Amino acid sequence: MNILVVRTDKLGDFITALPAMYVLKQHNPQNRIIALIAPLNRELAFECPFIDEVLVDDGKISVFELAAKLRAAKIDASITLFSNTRVALAQFLARIPKRIAPATKIAQIFYTHRIKQRRSEVKMGEFEYNLELTKTLFSEINLEYKKPLLEFCDAKEVYEEFVHEYHISKAVVAFHVGFGGSSDANWSLDEYEILIREVLAHGKYQVVLTFGPDETALCDAMKKRFAHEKVIFYISKEGIVHFAKLISNFKLFVSTSTGTYHLASLVGTPTMTFFADSLFASSARWKGVGDEKLQEHFMIPSSTNREKIFDDVKSALSKI
């Protein structure tokens, strides 16, 4: 069976779709898993052995052109994990026989199977809601998946090159201070400086600050704060897969709830993550796809108790 799985939004959202794709492939290795994704996730998708074909929707082609692309893939069934009118109409025009999606928005009229999930109630994590949708296609499907879900045979070599280049002799604790994606809360740079100095005071770990390719100004700002400490500043310019291979070797990845956090969890790295103190943006909804024992979550309130939570984070860092 040719199965289309649709998730055309950001990195973290795409990663929450991967367990569903994995179990569909495991259910029957003869299933051909076709992922319809955003351009920024193309490189990572090609590294997933349970994805057989990658279709990219950059949003620039017409809905009719997208429908033609889907029709050419000869899809038997589709599961749209997050829908919009454009991808819904394209599937309708492509005449995919079985079209499954959550029963939300006007777009649901274009699907043959509309599943009421009420994700806003956050009774489970986003990736678990995605897994639940696969049961509409195969009621007896096993929703268990391996953790870490994505591994690389050359990850050690990538890390060894990094260690050699930066003369690292200790395990790495990384901080990703950037603020992006659907993240709704983060510490200030002043607060991050305090947290980073908490780890530096141990002398036990090498601190690495990581930045996206468009965060050079943020990198420069943090360099000024640690001009006299042995802190490594790493701007990821070699692509998301290279970055995934690198961080899979880190002792701990500290960040807000953004795409890089989901990437770290995907490859099995222990995470310490900061979430907004609201149901929509909570750790209950956006927990990582990795082993929950390797995830430590903190909810940052907008005002009340912020100082206490910050002290709790400092205390947790002092114990690593």
Write out the strand line-up for the largest beta sheet, numbering strands in chain order: 3-2-1-4-5-6
Question: What's the level 1 CATH class of the largest domain?
Answer: Alpha Beta
Instruction: Estimate the mean pLDDT confidence.
Output: 95
Q: What kind of assembly state do the chains in view correspond to?
A: single chain
> How many beta-strand segments?
12
State the secondary-structure class.
alpha/beta
Percent helix, as a range, is 25-40%
Unreliable stretches, pLDDT < 50, 5 or more residues?
A: none
Task: Report on this structure.
There is one protein chain. This protein has helices spanning 11-27, 42-46, 63-72, 85-93, 126-134, 155-166, 189-202, 216-225, 240-247, 259-266, 283-286, 306-318, and strands at residues 2-7, 32-37, 53-56, 77-80, 98-102, 113-115, 172-176, 206-211, 232-235, 252-256, 271-276, 295-300. Strands 3-2-1-4-5-6 form a 6-stranded parallel β-sheet, with helices on both faces. The mean pLDDT is 95. The longest helix has 17 residues, at 11-27. α10 links the parallel β10 and β11 (271-276). The chain folds into 2 domains: 2-134, Rossmann fold; 155-318, Glycogen Phosphorylase B (Rossmann fold). It is α/β, with parallel strands linked by helices and 320 residues long. α1 packs parallel to α5. It contains 12 helices and 12 strands.
Task: Give me the secondary-structure topology.
Layout (H helix, E strand, L loop, with lengths): L1 E6 L3 H17 L4 E6 L4 H5 L6 E4 L6 H10 L4 E4 L4 H9 L4 E5 L10 E3 L10 H9 L20 H12 L5 E5 L12 H14 L3 E6 L4 H10 L6 E4 L4 H8 L4 E5 L2 H8 L4 E6 L6 H4 L8 E6 L5 H13 L2
Helix pairs in contact: 1-5, 1-10, 3-4, 6-9, 7-12
